[in-house]
User: Which sequence fits this backbone?
């Protein structure tokens, strides 16, 4: 059984800036880390590996520095890592990102299960996983919060829908996008970390892909273009009051009394 | 040039109508409202498409809405993205709409990317504002980077233009139109999908932060997980629930179910006390209709103060225990 996990390097803090002209994220100078939701996807893969003896390949798309994501995944127990990196891939939207991931995963062979985190903390769309599944022409489920059972043929999972939860059996090949709560990611192991120093990282550039036409990737392969960026409006509705704790507490009690959350006789 | 002409041949606004508890999901009615607003500028017809085992039951509920055509795709099975997509794709191929609006629910967000890829076109998730520019293109605005900046996005050379919108972001319209709607019912063939649903469990609704009268909200200003217990206590005293901003969900201290914001839940309780919440655009998008917002933050520049009815600059670690004592006494 072969599992592919998609992981992304994101800015550590949910802040950043965009190039005014192209609308592409300026990543330079920002502290980066692994998207927390993707760690849950990796942990899910590791749990399955322990049960079925699966092998785990990590796919990460980004600049050269994204190799750190693969090193971290190695230290947690991933077997193989692919860095999808080429200037031609830069500035990709949902359509182009998912297409690039599909091309890259297919260049590395056949996978039974593809795991993604629920969303990234920078793009924040939660749409790349479904798009990737469609490109690969496989079924997918989002919002997966429980792994119920896993065999060599299929996987049983629970996922959240509107005001209900669903227990489903999914046949391979398939893609699952998991909630952060599915598993708590393990700490990287020092032993694995040292062992993985020698481990190779395979770099996938446009030349490794079946479709080598740069028009289909990055900014030029994107269907959406950022037209403008602007700061949200800032208007102060009410004067800010700076209060010492006791006074503040009394002030809030008065408001809550007015709203009838607490009785009048409290003072 | 050929691309541009091709684009012009796509016309109309299609709303994906989600079936929810044998009715229409509120977000779909909000999207019909938004489609109507846009259609008055673009002079385009509005269409609706619904998929599912019970779609015919919806016919009555469509009455009074300004819909030219409604497409109903009957299925043997409940929602699965790779089944429902067939219906929506077929509908889009039939009417060739310029714009497709889909609710930003768990169902809509599982479906939208698959269909957008089918048409190799653009999809903008969680839009907070939709406009049509002078060229007739859909300008889709959403918060970016954790919500500190807004981005306006265009789908330039491909159609349809796909946008998802979270519940309670747009306004519904009143169903008082006298409109001759054409209904088209089609069957989707049952086939192997690779996914079999084994059981469905309804979730108890009163547990949700969505329908609370009062919410206490914990933000990034909460430094230790243990500190959540005092906020939990305060929520209990006021008969409400504890919710949080995204920061604490990413830390794993709070569940995504308790998250307020565009990437979480949209809430509008009668009263909310935010504790150490900075107020990113994406957070505010999920709670801006709250009637009474009491915001406590030690940073005078916190954005939450801009929408708070009672902005209080102070230390939550001092104020909250005092407040709890006062209420208890």
Assistant:
């Amino acid at each position: 059984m072969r599992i592919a996990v998609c992981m992304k390097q994101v800015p550590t803090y949910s802040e950043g800036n965009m190039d005014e002209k192209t609308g592409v994220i300026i990543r330079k100078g920002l502290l980066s880390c692994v998207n927390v939701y993707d760690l849950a996807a990796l942990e899910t893969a590791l749990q399955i590996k322990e049960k079925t003896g699966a092998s785990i390949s990590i796919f990460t798309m980004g600049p050269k520095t994204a190799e750190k994501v693969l090193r971290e995944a190695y230290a947690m127990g991933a077997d193989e890592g692919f860095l999808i990196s080429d200037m031609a891939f830069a500035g990709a939207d949902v359509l182009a990102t998912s297409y690039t991931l599909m091309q890259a995963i297919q260049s590395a062979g056949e996978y039974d299960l593809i795991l993604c985190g629920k969303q990234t903390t920078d793009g924040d769309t939660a749409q790349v996983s479904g798009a990737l599944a469609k490109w690969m022409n496989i079924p997918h489920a989002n919002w997966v919060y429980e792994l119920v059972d896993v065999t060599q043929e299929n996987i049983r999972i629970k996922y959240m829908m509107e005001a209900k939860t669903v227990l489903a059996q999914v046949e391979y090949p398939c893609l699952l996008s998991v909630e952060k709560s599915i598993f708590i990611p393990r700490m990287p192991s020092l032993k694995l970390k040292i062992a993985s120093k020698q481990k190779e990282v395979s770099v996938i550039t446009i030349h490794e892909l079946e479709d080598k036409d740069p028009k289909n990737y990055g900014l030029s392969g994107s269907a959406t273009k950022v037209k403008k960026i602007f700061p949200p409006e800032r208007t102060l509705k009410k004067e800010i009051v700076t209060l010492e704790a006791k006074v503040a507490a009394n002030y809030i009690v008065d408001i809550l009394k007015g709203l009838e959350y607490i009785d009048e006789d409290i003072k | 040039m050929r691309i541009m002409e091709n684009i012009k041949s796509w016309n109309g606004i299609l709303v994906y109508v989600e079936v929810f508890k044998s009715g229409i999901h509120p977000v779909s009615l909000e999207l019909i409202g938004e489609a109507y607003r846009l259609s008055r500028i673009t002079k385009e017809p509005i269409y609706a498409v619904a998929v599912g085992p019970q779609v015919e039951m919806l016919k009555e509920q469509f009455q009074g809405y300004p819909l030219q055509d409604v497409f109903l795709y009957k299925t043997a099975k409940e929602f699965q993205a790779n089944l429902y997509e067939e219906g929506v794709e077929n509908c889009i191929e039939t009417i060739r709409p310029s714009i497709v609006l889909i609710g930003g629910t768990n169902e809509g967000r599982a479906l939208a990317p698959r269909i957008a890829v089918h048409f190799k076109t653009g999809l903008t998730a969680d839009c907070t504002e939709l406009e049509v520019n002078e060229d007739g293109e859909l300008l889709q605005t959403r918060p970016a980077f954790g919500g500190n900046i807004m981005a306006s996005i265009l789908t330039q050379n491909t159609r349809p233009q796909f946008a998802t919108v979270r519940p309670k972001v747009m306004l519904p319209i009143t169903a008082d139109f006298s409109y001759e709607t054409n209904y088209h019912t089609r069957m989707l063939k049952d086939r192997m999908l690779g996914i079999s649903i084994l059981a469905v469990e309804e979730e108890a609704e009163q547990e949700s932060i969505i329908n609370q009268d009062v919410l206490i909200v914990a933000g990034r200003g909460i430094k230790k997980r243990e500190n959540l217990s005092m906020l939990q206590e305060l929520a209990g005293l006021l008969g409400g629930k504890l919710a949080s901003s995204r920061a604490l969900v990413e830390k794993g201290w709070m569940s995504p179910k308790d998250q307020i914001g565009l990437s979480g839940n949209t809430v509008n309780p009668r009263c909310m006390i935010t504790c150490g919440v900075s107020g990113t655009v994406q957070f505010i998008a999920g709670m801006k209709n709250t009637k009474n917002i009491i915001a406590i933050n030690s940073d005078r520049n916190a954005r939450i103060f801009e929408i708070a009815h009672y902005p209080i600059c102070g230390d939550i670690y001092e104020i909250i225990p005092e407040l709890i004592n006062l209420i208890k006494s």
Notes: Chain B has a mean pLDDT of 92. Chain B touches chain A through 100 residues (CB under 8 Å). The first strand of chain B starts at residue 13 and ends at 17. Helices of chain B lie at 2-8, 26-42, 81-95, 106-118, 228-238, 246-250, 281-284, 316-328.
